[in-house]
C-alpha cells in the first residue's frame, strides 16, 4: 500500500484546494470566504505526540503554559521523562493520568522515522496502541506531522460543525457519517479538513457560534 501524496508546501495545499473547488460548488464557495488555506505542517517525533497528550482536555492557554514549563525543565524527551519522578512531572502541571500516558509513550519505543514510510492506516494503528493516543490524535499527527494529503479526522467537532453549516445539514454529522462524506474528497481529504476548519472560523466569527 502506497503512502500517497505528501504535502510539502503551500503549492500542494493550493493544488488540493483548487481540485476540491472544481469538484464541489460548496467547497468553492467556502474557499472564496476563507482565502488561501494554511499549510499547518509540524515536526514529527516524540515531542509532537507528547505535546498532543499534554493538550488533552485542557484549554489552549493551559496547554501552552504546561508545555512551556516542560520545555524550561527539559522534560520533552523520552529519556528525561523516564528519569523524572512523578513529583517532577506534577510540578510542571501534568496530571497523574497524563504522567502515565507520557511514560507509556516513552515505553512504546515508536520508530518515528519508520512511520514516515508507513501507509496511513498502519501509522494510525501503531499510534493508537499507546495509551492516551486516540484515533483523532493519530489522524492529526498523520495529517500535519507526516504531511499526508489524504487523511481526515471525522471525530473533530469543528469539522462536524463546519460540514453542518456548509452543506446545510439538519444536525452535526456523526463520526461515521462525516467519514463517509469525506470519501468524495479523496485524494485531498487533508486539504478538505483545512478548508472546513478555515470555514468554521469564518462562520464562527460571522454567526457567533459557541
Shape: globular
As a whole number of angstroms, the C-alpha radius of gyration is 18 Å
Q: Quick one: biggest sheet?
A: none
- Average pLDDT: 95
CATH class category label of the largest domain: Mainly Alpha
Q: H/E order of the elements?
A: HHHHHHHHHHHHH
Total separate domains: 2
Number of strands: 0
CATH topology of the largest domain: Endonuclease III, domain 1
Number of helices, where a helix is a run of at least 4 consecutive DSSP H or I residues: 13
Unreliably modeled segments: none
- Reported CATH architecture of the largest domain: Orthogonal Bundle
Measured between the Cα atoms of the first and last residue, the distance is 41 Å
CATH homology group of the largest domain = Hypothetical protein, domain 2
Structural class label? mainly alpha
Helical percentage: 55-70%
Into which percentage range does the β-strand content fall? under 5%
How would you characterize the overall build of this protein?
With 210 residues, this protein is mainly alpha-helical. It has helices at residues 10-23, 25-34, 46-55, 60-72, 78-83, 86-91, 96-108, 112-115, 120-127, 135-145, 157-166, 175-182, 189-207. The chain is built from 13 helices and no strands.
Provide a short characterization of the protein structure.
The chain is mainly α and 210 residues long.
Sum up the structure in keywords.
2 domains; 13 helices; Endonuclease III, domain 1; mainly alpha; Endonuclease Iii, domain 2; 210 residues; globular
